[in-house]
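Homework help board

Subject: predicted structure for assignment chain

Our instructor gave us this sequence and asked us to write out the predicted structure in token form, then describe one feature. I got the tokens but I'm not sure how to describe them. Can anyone check?
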Amino acid sequence: MNKWKKGAVTLACDELYECIKGKKIALMMNTTAIDNEGNLLVDEIVNNSESKVEFFFGMEHGVRGDLYAGDGKLSDVDAKTGIKIVNLYEYPRLQPPVEWVEKVDAVVFCAQDVGVRHWTYTPWMMLLIETCAKTGCEAIILDRPNPIRGDIVEGAPAEPKYAGTHLLSGFEYPLRHGMTIGELALMYNDVKNVGAKVTVLKMQGWKRDMWYDETGLVWVPGSPNMPDTDTPLFFAATGLLQAASFSLGIGTTTPFEFVGAPDFDGDALAKELNSRNLPGIYFIQKYYMAMTYLKPTEGSSRELTLCNGVYMVINDRDAWRPVETQFHIMDALAKLFPDKVNFEHHGLARPRTCTDKVHDALKARESVLPIAEEWKKGAEEFKKTREKYLLY
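My token output:
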């Protein structure tokens, strides 16, 4: 017997079943797409809906979550249902191909966003919308909560030079955007003049000032590095640094909550960051074992290494601004360890940041804090731009 307790937020699953009734559909989902009782939605739709599921689109981590990030070795057929999997890694831009989308009446998209721009599932949804516009196929978005609230925006929108150039870049919206996947779908379809038929199935009970753990919905890790409901906040605080040569705690049980390296002075870093009196966050010196990049000459391979750094402790999540904190982390590292850090260890650094300003300043050994102030202004401007697309 399913004993899952009903929470404050209800997903529009009943409306979805009615919307797809009698249609030939495809599903673009993964293990984060669950219904109100915690059941995997791909299986529920296949087994219980009055629609014909023709195929699944396979995204990062696969339909069943059995692959690591970036591993494109998806199976051709889903072992549980026997349904065809269309591997998006085999197509240009990783975009859902026209020749498959035109086979169905609608594609249903549902995947949990983390509220941060460089999370690949949501930009993948935008690529789907583009293809649907070319075929006349309907894109049905089953909306889900923004786990780090919908009333706080941080960061300037992605610059046009980078917007849409990579799955990490999305389009011209901020790093912490404060929107749901449904709202972003409507915004993208409109501001980019895509012209797709987009149907967003709204949640009931979600409020913009909610954290995910207040929704009553079960949290399913969308990646091995997104284990719980606090992780998206830490991802907003250190995620841009994934292309750097130091460690963010990847490989630990608390990824993105650390900043360190084998040759860092964690005590000095903690004292420097705490001296800045950032609201809602505190830094403590910590040794930890984590995956770190090897020397640049050895490519992007990693190894498990003992690191000395800082561990972040949230003492007021309502007051904490993780994106601003990220700038202070970069600034402190550049100040304390100028000859030990490489912020562009590989080529994805700038597509994540979506601007050259940050990395140009770091290369020139200039403070990045003035850029943080620019980003605050950009966030306020975006809040006005997004108003017409907000559903809650």
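Reply (TA_rk): Your tokens look well-formed. For the description, you could write something like this. The beta strands are 24-29, 52-58, 84-87, 106-110, 138-142, 197-201, 258-261, 281-293, 302-314. That's the kind of observation they're looking for.
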